[in-house]
From TrEMBL:
A single MF term (Gene Ontology): solute:proton symporter activity
Protein name per UniProt: L-lactate permease
Annotated GO CC locations: plasma membrane
Pfam families (alphabetical): Lactate_perm
Chief place of localization: membrane
Species per Swiss-Prot/TrEMBL record: Parageobacillus thermoglucosidasius (Geobacillus thermoglucosidasius)
Function statement: Uptake of L-lactate across the membrane. Can also transport D-lactate and glycolate.
Amino acid sequence: MHHAVHFLLAGLPILFALICLVWLKMPALHTAVYSYGLASVLAYFSFDTPVQNLLHSSVRGMLLSVTVIYVLVFGMFLYNLLNECGAMNAMAYGLSRFCRSQAEQGLLISASLGPFLEAVSGFGVAVVIVAPLYLAFGFSAKKTMVLSLLTQSAVPWGALAIGTAINAELSGVPLRQLGEYSALVSIPLYVFYAFMVVAVSGGKKSVKQHLDSIFLVSFVLSLVTWATSVYVSTELAGVLAGGAAACALIIYWKVKTLISKKRGKTAAAHVVIGKGNFYKAMAPYAVLTIYIFVSHFSAACRRIVASMLVIQWPKYHFHLELLYSPGFALLLASLTAIWLYRLTGVQLKICIGKTIKQVYPAAIATTGFIAMSSVMEGAGMTNFLAAHIAALVGSWFIIASPFIGAIGGFMSGSNSTANAMFSHFQSTMAQQLHSPALLYATAQNVSAANMTMASPSRIVLAASITSQSGHEGQLVRDILPIAFAVLLIITSSIVGLSFFL
């Protein structure tokens, strides 16, 4: 009975946050502050955490949120700059030439370019980039938020697979094998995400009309992710897969259009108002992508950017490489946009004002949720939940393993952090059950990565970029069923994989 009560108390902050967002429709800013307060009270009174430890965990969580806010600030700033100078409309017009319908726009942006952008940058930057595109296409804020979160299908390879590398190190399994099996488990997920993207963007009736494109993008993503992980590099799998999927879709649609013209048929195109120089509008994003590639894959550049302007606080395990972070790449992209479009001081002032207004609630909410997660981890509440779930299912831990990974991804909003929290625990359970460590490492990696899609910090990010702060509850209600379906698919795949390992 005592353990049951403690189990409920350990999970209460998460449950409380969901109730506030979904049922009470409370703004994320208030929910985050109250959830952090509840976690702190429970940690002190129910889990006997000293005040000093509480303060340590709180500060650590707040410092961790700085890495996210750094990206958020310049991501928002770049969006406002491009919107102010009309570049967003130019990009939307350029992309509309490849797409004949909103469903195709969703497939190109969320199902292919989204994974590419997330693989290149990580930290949810794909959400920041694609949401403004959807708004420029004329999508509603509600659809835009969901579609931007659906870009998180390749998070195991996000930020050049840094989270997967952490998992491999802590689990003691080869990175190549972990990338390979993560890719295998992701095959049905790619299909599911593509179906959901079309259903959300074009409506359920459009799914049947775009089955060919759905299976094409799913096949290319699956094949290239797996082949790159096995034969090239796990770090590059998401980048090459997303890029290949986008190219395959564009070529396929071009061929279909040519065939239709030869047969005398014309397809109705979805045209976006607002012509402009497409390549000029894309230049800031090209700068962002090139900088991240060079800084990550050039050994000389990496040594420079990783050693200059580094903020670290070893006591709190805080380490922020200002020049190595995607936040700095977004700053460079912002400066590129200012230079290309010759923005005036008045325009810059307007963009800075909008950015501050958008970032403030998102920054507070992100800090609160990450601090809550840090307090729960420091008080042992997170491990208590995981250990008792494992004890409850016993030899059926294979079913609980993805759920534990999902808890980490949902709480932290980061595959890297979630893997740092639970990879060793999953490996220990594998040893106790005499099961392959690779199996549980894969379950942890894929479930944690995919559940970041529904994490409060990602929800806040999507709501903020679409100017929907205060309406996060609706987004939670929309995304949670998708997230639970994803978790069910992962669990089924892991159980199936267990028969071959």
